[in-house]
Amino acid sequence: MNSSLRSLLTLAFTLCAGAFGISAAHASFAIMPMETQLKMPQDGNSITDEIEVFNGGDTPLHISSSVVDWKLTPDGDYQYAEAGTEKSSCAKWIQLSPPEFNVAPKKSVRVRYSITPTETLTDERRAMIFFASRPIPVKGENRMGLSVATRMGCKVFVSPAQPLTKNGVLSDMELQNAPRQRVRVSVKNPGAATFRAGGTVQISDEAGTIVAQGVLNSAQVVPQAERNLWFNLSAPLPAGNYIIKAVVDYGAKQNIGGELKTKVTTAPMVSAAIAPAKG
């Protein structure tokens, strides 16, 4: 493995640990890439790609793989299911080589996988390829301590050769007051292709004065699903009437927008004055 690839995988090792909520000290391996988008060739029945699995620790690892279905909740939590459960699944089309292997410390193994559709592909399909690790005991060593097993996943998307049109809808808007004041903008994907949505929010009072504005977080929206985008206010809005405007960019030729008229009925607790007690 050359030095540039080793540097990239070392970076991926750190990023993977953060993405999956594992400290760098406890993470034992990394994968690269963590997401891949493939397009079936015009005249091909299958497509092949590879994933690099890197052991960043000091102990040999045994790696096993699995392929599952996945989807996202509106707030971005992953939900997993058995391969072939979801309508959008390509999990049963995937074959891995090798599916199970050992990786020496500071070394990597390339895992090739092929996707062979068993039906005509007219929309985007997806799956998650998981790699789970466990330390291999070294002869002659008597190690005491906690052995942490970890699992990393690569999201795989596969699309037909012909381009798919992105289709996004701004489905809902809301001003929330708890646990802190923030704007929720919900975006639906009724189409056949995944997109990433982000955007901006502008809040005006009755006089038309802009009292708050900012950027919505960016989120991946898979087909036939909905995601919530958020804008956290730096300071609570006082009581009054407001107009909230949102513009969402999801990678299409035109952005989508929405407007919400809302009323804050009570002054925020942080700015409320305490009236003196009557004698």
Automatic annotation (TrEMBL):
GO cellular component terms listed in the entry, alphabetical order: outer membrane-bounded periplasmic space
Gene Ontology terms describing biological process: cell wall organization
Keyword terms, alphabetized: Signal
Pfam families to which the protein is assigned, alphabetical: PapD_N (PF00345)
Keyword Amino-acid biosynthesis listed: no
Gene3D superfamilies assigned: Immunoglobulins
Residue stretches making up the Pili assembly chaperone N-terminal domain: 35-162
Annotated protein name in UniProt: P pilus assembly protein, chaperone PapD
